């Protein structure tokens, strides 16, 4: 009788301490994981690669999302890394491609960067188009746009655009960086220039 | 011989420049900063706001004033933001005035099929407006016929 009780107590104790251990380990692992996730979302991390620092970062420093009247900012990850768990994991997974190209030196000079900018920009536009500019809308909720407060050009474009099912990136390309060469019909066409209609694709939604 | 002339020229230049360098301290720009001094810091920039319509023109050949904000508009080797609204293909969608037909001519007056590259820098001629106080009084008035 006593023996059975002892075994029971021992078993229960074992189960509890195992659960406890898993719990503690979980916290450590999950915390560490999250810390790593958060750290890789900082501006400091992104610009630790000169490819990011000398090109896109310098350009972004002249824009409204870097410094402005109110000091509310958008950093790299706010626009480039989704906030939702699964899309974030997918984006971080694709980021390993950046590591590969870092090693290959695909964009390690300003000239190489410029040559590849059109490819990268179009990928980013396509991604934002697919998720209906989710990252922009995390901060800018257009259902709360006060059209009376906006400039006439903004409020006209927005009301017309949203009625036609357009999304932020359909109109706001080049909001944070220099655009790749676009053929706008000035004299001779620049080599490798994208046709002007990539900027305003016909809406499909 | 040559060096003597060079010396003489050098001394003459120095003597001539002396009074200017001495008085440059007192000379002020229209913005009230000393000529040699630093410019006003950037926070004195005025915010440009959209006027919400076209601004009146004062003489026939005047490049029309820009009636809206142009802050952060990219005009780079790759891309000209102004044309995103003012080009002939975009004007209808954006409600902007089409670039003038005169902008399709080169300096020999030859008609081109695209905007002449000499018009690339729109803001060279078309300037945005703020409600700043005039630095110098201006009594210009348009001809009565306009």
From TrEMBL, chain A:
Name of the protein: Cytochrome c-type protein
Keyword 4Fe-4S carried by entry: no
GO annotation, cellular component aspect: plasma membrane
Organism: Pseudomonas flexibilis
Transmembrane regions: 7-33
Record note on cofactor: Binds 4 heme groups per subunit.
GO molecular-function term, one example from the UniProt record: electron transfer activity
Cofactor: heme
Binding site residues for heme 4: 136, 139, 168, 171-172
Residues holding heme 2: 76, 79-80, 177
From TrEMBL, chain B:
Gene Ontology CC terms, in alphabetical order: periplasmic space
Posttranslational mods: Binds 2 heme C groups per subunit.
Binding locations of heme c 2: 103, 122, 125-126
Keywords annotated in UniProt: Electron transport, Heme, Iron, Metal-binding, Periplasm, Signal, Transport
Domain of life: Bacteria
InterPro entries in the record: Multihaem_cyt_sf, NapB
Cellular localisation: Periplasm
Primary localization: periplasm
Signal peptide per UniProt: 1-24
GO molecular function terms listed in the Swiss-Prot or TrEMBL record: metal ion binding
Annotated binding of heme c 1, by residue: 68, 82, 85-86
Gene Ontology biological process terms, A to Z: anaerobic respiration
Role: Electron transfer subunit of the periplasmic nitrate reductase complex NapAB. Receives electrons from the membrane-anchored tetraheme c-type NapC protein and transfers these to NapA subunit, thus allowing electron flow between membrane and periplasm. Essential for periplasmic nitrate reduction with nitrate as the terminal electron acceptor.
Subunit and partners: Component of the periplasmic nitrate reductase NapAB complex composed of NapA and NapB.
Family classification: Belongs to the NapB family.
Entry protein name: Periplasmic nitrate reductase, electron transfer subunit
Organism (species): Pseudomonas flexibilis
């Amino acid at each position: 009788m006593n023996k059975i009780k002892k075994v029971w107590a021992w078993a229960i104790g074992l189960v509890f301490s195992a659960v406890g251990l898993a719990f503690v380990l979980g916290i450590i692992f999950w915390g560490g994981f999250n810390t790593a996730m958060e750290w890789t979302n900082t501006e400091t991390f992104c610009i630790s690669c000169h490819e990011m620092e000398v090109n896109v970062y310098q350009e972004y420093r002249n824009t409204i999302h870097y410094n402005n009247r109110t000091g509310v900012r958008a950093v790299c990850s706010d626009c480039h890394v989704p906030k939702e768990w699964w899309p974030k994991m997918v984006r971080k997974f694709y980021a390993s491609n950046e590591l590969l190209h870092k090693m290959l030196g695909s964009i390690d000079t300003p000239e190489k960067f410029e040559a590849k900018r059109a490819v990268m920009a179009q990928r980013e536009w396509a991604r934002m188009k697919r998720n209906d500019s989710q990252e922009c809308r995390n901060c800018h909720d257009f259902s709360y746009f006060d059209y009376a407060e906006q400039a006439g050009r903004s409020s006209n474009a927005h009301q017309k655009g949203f009625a036609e099912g357009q999304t932020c990136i359909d109109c706001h390309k080049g909001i944070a960086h220099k655009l790749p060469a676009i053929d706008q019909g000035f004299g001779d066409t620049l080599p490798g220039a994208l046709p002007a209609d990539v900027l305003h694709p016909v809406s499909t939604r | 011989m040559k060096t003597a002339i060079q010396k003489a020229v050098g001394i003459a230049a120095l003597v001539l420049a002396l009074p200017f360098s001495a008085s440059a301290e007192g000379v002020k720009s229209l913005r009230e900063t000393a000529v040699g001094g630093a410019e006003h810091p950037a926070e004195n920039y005025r915010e440009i706001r959209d006027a919400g319509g076209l601004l009146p023109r004062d003489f026939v050949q005047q490049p029309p004033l820009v009636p809206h904000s142009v802050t952060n508009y990219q005009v780079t080797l790759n891309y000209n933001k102004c044309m995103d609204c003012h080009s002939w293909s975009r004007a209808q969608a954006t409600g902007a005035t089409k670039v003038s037909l005169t902008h399709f001519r080169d300096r020999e007056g030859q008609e081109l099929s695209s905007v002449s590259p000499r018009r690339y820098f729109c803001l060279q001629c078309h300037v945005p407006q703020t409600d700043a106080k005039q630095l110098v009084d201006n009594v210009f008035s348009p001809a009565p016929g306009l």
